[in-house]
Amino acid sequence: MSQTVNPVKNPSCEVNATGYYALSGTGGASTVARATVAPAGPGAGSAYARSTWTVANTAIGAGMTIGSSTLTGVERIDVVPGQLYQIGVWVRASVAKTLKLTAVVYSASATLVSSSDGPNTVVAANTWTRLTIANTPGAGGVRLVLLIEDFAAPFWANGNTLDVDGVIVWPGATLPDYSDPSTNPNMGWSGTAHASTSILFTPTVTLTQYAPDTLAGPRVEVLVQDLPPGTITITRFSDARSFPVRGGVKVASASGVTVLDVEVPEGITAGYQAQMFAPDGTPIGFSTTTATTMPITGIYISQPLDPTLFAKVNMDDDSAASLVRGFDGAVVYTDGATVGRWVGGRRKGLSGVILNMETSTVADADEIQSMFGTYSTDQLPVLCIRTPPGFGRIPRTLFLAVQDPEEIDRSVRFGGSLVAFALKGDEVLPPAPGLSKSLLRYNDTDLFYPTYSAIDAAYGTYLARDRDYSKAGYAP
């Protein structure tokens, strides 16, 4: 998992100015309060902390303090010893100033550990300017306090103001633009909004291959973790096409999402990417793409809406020998024209594809018939057909609508087990990609473990239970 945390709990004062303190300077007096006079700092909301001087100071070193070495609530900024941090603070002064950002690190007992200064920065009057500094807390340094101070005359006068906004303490070598969960949908608060640390979610996609077994054909688990609140849709890219992964459409992100792609092609690269949506349905971004290549184990056909109905078949050499991708439309001749004009739509998918196949057992033949439905069970007349590279020029994962499946007895009447099928159909989109029959059910783990306490002990999270595919099919 990949998460980055800004430990500043009140980074932009959208609710109050807790954690921001007056640094009045020698002989001066000032107060700090939340202000909303537009504009706020870049990337932040509509508020910020404002220090207003009521008595002028007489020496350098006045400004504002952020954080506390002794308080334990919103005011405290927790850091990790040895971790490099990039620190950024937006400031605005009512008069031209030379300001400096200082990082002061304390131990858990509020003992000073270290202090480091950023550069003196000239800040034009009424202009938001970002002060920055890099800091690595030393051994025992777990509390951070930031000081914003002036280091050149003129000093703060009565009525002068200093505004502070967009405070970020970012782990790593790069300081990003300021953002928080109120402005960045890829972030979330660890607790109360504007009173807890903020987390940047960086989704990761992990793929695990599963060989064919008695449950289903070859498949790959797509595990997406470190997701912001909302939903995701997982897409597979392969064979110069893209398809939503079955069962991975608008899935609640929760603590992570696991989906089995039972339609993954064999022998070619398949890439997977998650698109994220906010709770209100607004698209908010994509994960990186992770790819895998499933080993070639044979030709498989299955019922898309029930992947437990599947069979490995032998395809005849004359299958898909002729391929047609036609157009809907016509050549139209206007009055007096000697040459017509084409009026029509886009090129269609494959039509009239003929696939001749054989099963080696009567049980497999029965399975194929079940894919089309039985006298008591209805199914869509659509098959998912997966062929390896080199077998014809059809898509490696082909969805074929077969209205009149034909079964041909090769040897059953003579006591054998060879059954053939002649399937003629048209290419279609995968039916209802948001629907999928789950291979792993809660009944499987409920039956495997004797008590709910044993289940809780075996799995630390619901996600861990949801992806323990070794228990799939345990319950009848």
From TrEMBL:
Gene3D superfamilies named among the record's database cross-references: Galactose-binding domain-like
Domain of life: Bacteria
Descriptive protein name: CBM-cenC domain-containing protein
Organism annotation: Cryobacterium fucosi
Organism phylogeny: Bacteria, Bacillati, Actinomycetota, Actinomycetes, Micrococcales
